[in-house]
Amino acid sequence: MMAPDGRVFLKSEFATADSNWPCFSYSKRSLGDFLRREYRTGRDVVVYAGTGDPERTADPAHRKRLLSAVSVDPSSEYETKRIVPPEIWERVAPRFGGNPWQFSMLIVRAATMTRRPFPAAQDVAPGAYASLGQPRYRGNVVEVLGREREIIMDLPVTRAELNFTEAARHYLDTRAAVAAETPKLVKQAAYRMAERIAQRIARSGTVDPRTNPVRFGANISDTIVIITRKWMQEQGGLCALCGTALEATDHPLLQPSPDRIDSSIPSYAADNLQITHLACNLAKNAWSNNQFAEWLEHVRGTGTIQTEK
Q1: Per-residue model confidence (pLDDT) at position 88
Q2: Which fold has domain 182-300?
Q3: What is the per-residue DSSP string for 35-68?
Q4: pTM of the predicted structure, to 2 decimals
């Protein structure tokens, strides 16, 4: 599962890695950022340690025990509830605040500790396990070092097969297809647009509702996919308003811009989102539909502006 010189990270979990929860999930985006910087797939491994909380770790056999070892892919971030089987999510989510562990990474390979009962975490890695209880490590990982790492590396494991639901597989395949065929500059532009949407949603309804009206949408990772699919596939690389080519540029008027199709609806969901030139977006929102249509015809050279006599 890992290279001999790989790093071992310990993370608190509530159960083994299996098809009921076939992903590596977390609630702090900072953990995802840390793993993208430090973790290398094929070199490193994350070991699950069951918590001692009977409300969270339901199975007594899992509490304070080393449960699983997983190799994860930190290159992408996914919405957890789109991957976990719906019946499991509906049962678990209400107990933990409605949308727990919002973010997930794919598990490339998983194994379960072979020994029964599961190895006691405080016996195998007392230092690392104790660190998980410190405030700065809650919801994060702790690196296992020295002799504790050597002992964990010697633990026997049995490979676990993780299966995804059909809906989860479709979701993952769609994201993978978008990522594979998207030029780097388009990915960067899509990320910037998704960030702007996230900022607008974060500001919505605050200070002055006239300048910050209530808005909502998907998380930033899913928004990137929506933007990319709209731009590259559904719109064929063209502005949804003027029909000319969209470029991944920072030109103040030609840069791509996320536009709500119906501005009266506060949602940035896929069915109310299109990608336009910033100039087209501003013109559409600042003037009437007729004025905007006349302006489009004029810049295309297919019409004239009617003036009052």
Answers
A1: 94
A2: Herpes Virus-1 (3.30.40)
A3: HHHH--TTT-EEEEEE-S-TTT---GGGTTBEEE
A4: 0.68
